[in-house]
Write the structure tokens for this entry.
Amino acid sequence: MARGDGRLTHDLYPGEKAPQDECGVFGVWAPGEEVAKLTYFGLYALQHRGQESAGIATSDGHSILVYKDMGLVSQVFDESSLTSLRGHLAIGHTRYSTTGGSTWENAQPTLGGSDRGTVALAHNGNLINTAELRDLVDEKLDGRAARGELARGNTSDTAVVTALLSENPDKPLEETALEVFPKLQGAYCIVFMDEHTLYAARDPYGVRPLALGRLDRGWVVASETAALQTIGASVVREVEPGELIAIDEYGLRSHKFAEPKPKGCVFEYVYLARPDAVIRGRVVHEARVEMGRQLAREHPVDADLVIGVPESGVPAATGYAQESGIPFGQGFVKNAYVGRTFIQPSQTLRQLGIRLKLNPLQHAIKGKRVLVVDDSIVRGNTQRAQVRMLREAGAAEIHVRISSPPITWPCFYGIDFATRAELIATGLGTEEIRASIGADSLGYISEDGMIAATEQPKDELCRACFTGEYPIPLPEDGRIGKHVLETLPIEVRTGHDTSVDVAEQDRRSDAEGVSLGLSGGAENSLLQP
């Protein structure tokens, strides 16, 4: 995945900030099974949804153990760590940070607790009233110092929800959850657990996917159906918007804590989800192929070869070739074994055109009119580099087709796009973007064409990044953004005297090199031009 500062990147263009996948969540209740290993392989299938950190929590009915760290699932866990995570229920998480920086303190699952027991929680999505919920935590603390994750410097919305679930020792967790979740605003799929019960909840809009599956000896929930199938679970259904489910020795219980108002993220179909995922009855791969067919109908061109940008552009390229009759071929070779690198290419290496991820297949391209299909254009840097590579490989003409409309607005529901000022389509029209990236022609799929490919009702899809129409109203006070909690004074965030947090004051940036705003200067996303 590309990172905004170029330090954690293996993309074609080191400075490009691609749309970042949000997070993956997984939960399993299965007595007699190796739940930690099931969770590991479930997270492995969800690795595309977050590559910054990974974690697993398990319970044996008496205590909860959590193991988490920065890095990929395969880097964080080994046989020894998984063997130590014993129990009959587990939750897991892969993270890309959308609220709170990319730090170890913000890795999930988070932990909270009361006299009744411990709570472990993992979250996919992004809340838009995090600051308001943090105020609510402070009210409940009534002058007492924050405990648990918040006291240890966690600045994620996940830690705030965990605190809200943990601060009512007089009520069972299930009852507390039914009171807390209606107060959450934004997109969230949450899996959490105490020592005995697995829970899963989905926001009333159903922005992010969450599926329920069945094992011979238990139940599973996961962000995508592909993770269920990976571990041999049968897909039962989706967790409904506004639904809380609980799974324990007495079976599965369902509660409706809010009326459903479906607004599923259309970008899941375009880019985020795995091709083999099924969302609301539609196979994602089939939706992407149909987007390519629609592109061919809307933006035909004379060309000799259709190629897709690996991996997400390939299904749409296949559809374009099928509809247009132009041969489909491989134009790029992708290095599938490149992991995240912390090595910053020097300016000299950039000028030489260092290519860590993609290389053109010169013998297939030379002398041909090439049509390139990609899923989206954010800043335009990646497409500019692709066009330059293809020209250097001898392409006679280069025509670019995009299987989503122009992205002109940021997402506040779990995808980390560039700011609005950085989105190339905010200030430029299609012809200007074409000239900027150096293509011979450029065409975007229409909004209606994209929606038709998903086979979902238009009024049940969130299209805010294309239209600026946000289905979940954003806070009027402007307290929103990735680092909203990190801009608070340290004593407010942790409930500690600042004299004990000198080390934290000195930590000015997260693992991505992004300023955490501890000097009072984090930018507010809503106020971006």
Observations:
- The chain is about 30% helix and 20% strand.
